[in-house]
Amino acid sequence: MPRRSSSDLKSFLAELVDRYPGQPEFLQAVDDVVTEVWPLVEDTKAYRDNEILRRIVEPDRIVSFRVVWQDDRGRPRVERGWRVQHSNAIGPYKGGLRFSPNLTEGVLKFLAFEQTFKNSLTGLPLGGAKGGATFAPRGKSDAEVMRFCQSFMTELHRYIGPNEDVPAGDMGVGAREIGYLFGQYKRLANRFEGALTGKGLSYGGSEVRSEATGWGTVFFLKAVLERADDGLKDKTVSISGAGNVALHAAQKAVEEGAKVVTLSDSEGLLHAPDGFDPELLERVMTQKLERRGPLSAVAEGSKTLEFHKGRTPWGVECDIALPCATQNELDGDDAKKLLQGGVRYVIEGANMPCTPDAVAAFRKAKIGFGPAKAANAGGVAVSGLEMAQNSARLSWDEARLTSQLEDIMVEIHDRCVADGEDRNGHVDYVRGANIAGFRKVADAMVAQGVV
Ligand code: NDP
Ligand code: 2IT
Question: Which ligand has an atom closest to residue 210 CA?
Fold first, then answer.
């Protein structure tokens, strides 16, 4: 079969644009991976002969379903639910569930696509998937959340299982939702088994899973810093978001001696010019993760905190930026502001938080840029360890899991370096993560034949 050229790359991507015009996030994620792995595919006859690229951009399957639930007034409410099973080439489908009113199939396709390469980078046997629903947990009572989760699982349970597809949390799906989802799965399957991760510690969950994504992002950052002969102590860090990932990233960064000066939520920016201390972070955790209230309330009556409605953290000068809220939250203009302010490292805690313009600006400036599929893989990695503990019917302790998480993040870092370092010793982590993540999946696909 003849080799393809870069004009073929353009037409390959253009074909997808024609086929999926309503899925910009999916196209964005595909463009990022395909552009980086194209030369590798050109050079590898088995990948070309097996049409690996054409196959990998098409999810194995997407199930979509209606979810009807009853609100507290007794009215039936209708949501859309999905599970995108992208690839099980290297292990059972694995990836989170997102509950968000604006969720679309295209967003879930991007997340499932990314998940496949992220999971490959962890070195664990995990395929890629993502799912969710248009349900908005905000403002709902516990009873409403429970009824929704039960109804959602009544549909989803047919497609998941410990060796088939293992969902976990993502935006809008935390410990409470996983509890209700697991309870309904167990009732329907009549089996106590690890069909979900992120479970509570009293019923098969793993130590360190709730902290894992944020802590893992900081472990990855530390590895990047260490390679640059630099360290986290006394660095000024801007973080966006105030959810599971952002708050645990902030917690670990503060523990490592950094000064974290921002957090944010969908209403605005919480600026702490003197930095958040551990007690203050505990208060924010209670407000955002337990009470699910607005971040602005934390600043009320405070002399050291400022809340700016409608603003993002990217106008605040920092050494390190950790976008940990949502996709495309940091654009080209934000990147310019951050670079002008002297940012030296940008590490993605959220999935695809930087737009292509922003990523291009950071790469051009040759700062340390850690892409999501490498930097936020700690969450799914500890999910993989939760699956291993469930299979063995054992629970490992916190110290063991923290050290395994750190080892995995350093290994991911090193995989990025192996495939992303140029002749001058500069590491392009975007290239490294895409090539290393892709190669393992592609080799497994070649080995398994035309399936
Ligand atoms: P949470 O639901 O716990 O938190 C999300 C946070 O982001 C909330 O503070 C939310 O604000 C804020 N937010 C949402 N949309 C916006 C917006 N448009 N502008 C500013 N802030 C916004 O989710 P997670 O922390 O779990 O997830 C955050 C990111 O990390 C997502 O991209 C997710 O896919 C990714 N991720 C999560 C993993 C996990 O293990 N949980 C693993 C790997 C990646 P508000 O409270 O006002 O809604
Ligand atoms: O985006 C992600 O990696 C997650 N939401 C975690 C997935 C998981 O299965 O733990």
Answer: 1
Asked if the domains at 61-192 and 212-375 fall in one CATH topology, the answer is yes
Which of 109, 171, 373 is the pocket-test mutation for ligand 1 (most atoms within 8 Å of CB)?
171
Q: pLDDT tens digit string along 217-270?
A: 999 999 999 999 999 999 999 999 999 999 999 999 999 999 999 999 999 999
Question: Tens of pLDDT along 143-179?
Answer: 999 999 999 999 999 999 999 999 999 999 999 999 9
Question: What DSSP string runs through 64-112?
Answer: EEEEEEE-TTS-EEEEEEEEEEEE-SSSSEEEEEEE-TT--HHHHHHHH
The ligand minimizing its distance to the Cα of 297 is 1
Cβ of 216 closer than 6 Å to ligand 1, yes or no, is no
Q: Could you give the 3-state DSSP secondary structure of residue 221?
A: helix
Residue 245 CA to ligand 1 center (angstroms) comes to 7
Q: Does ligand 1 lie within 6 Å of residue 95's CB atom?
A: no
pTM of the model: 0.98
Residue nearest to atom 7 of ligand 1 (CA): 325
Kindly name the residue from 130, 140, 222, 288 that is annotated as catalytic.
Answer: 130
Residues 274-310 as b/e (b if ≥16 CB within 10 A, e otherwise) read ebbeeebbeebbebbbeeeebbbebbeeeeebebbee
Q: Ligand 1 centroid vs 364 CA: distance in angstroms?
A: 27
The full set of domain ranges for the chain reads: 6-56, 61-192, 212-375
Long-range contacts of 296-305 (CB under 8 A, 24+ apart): 296/267, 296/268, 296/270, 298/270, 299/270, 304/272, 304/273, 304/274, 305/270, 305/271, 305/272, 305/280
**CA pair distance 113, 108, nearest whole angstrom:** 8
- CATH number given to 61-192: 3.40.50.10860
Please work out whether the CB of residue 50 comes within 6 Å of at least one atom of ligand 1: no
Whether 94 sits among the annotated catalytic residues: the reply is no
Q: Classify domain 212-375 at the CATH topology level.
A: Rossmann fold (3.40.50)
